[in-house]
Amino acid sequence: MHPSIPPSSINVATLPQNIEETSSKLIKLCGEAEGYLEAHFSTLLATFPNPLHHLDVFYMFCGRCVWDR
């Protein structure tokens, strides 16, 4: 598995404190948004008679199925 973020020449250890705080807040916000998105699509999938036949509705579930095999 490869990280989805390309390498960077920025040394994050030398970033000013306010930039580190902003970065941390953005990471947390993205995580929360992903959680809401997963909850929404889980609810949507649950409405199908055979939810496993409709995993392609949510690309992240499809990707996890591939990695979990």
Explain the overall architecture.
The protein is an all-alpha fold. It has one domain. 58% of the residues lie in helices and 0% in strands. It has two helices and no strands. It has helices at residues 17-46, 59-68. It starts with 16 loop residues before the first helix and ends with a helix. The mean pLDDT is 78.
Q: Overall 3D geometry? A: elongated
Mean of all residue-level pLDDT scores: 78
Major β-sheet profile? none
Count up the helices: 2
Bin the helical content.
55-70%
- What is the gyration radius calculated from CA atoms? 17 Å
List the helices and strands and how they pair.
Layout: H1 17-46, H2 59-68
Which features characterize this protein?
0% strand
Summed up, what is this model?
The chain contains two helices and no strands.
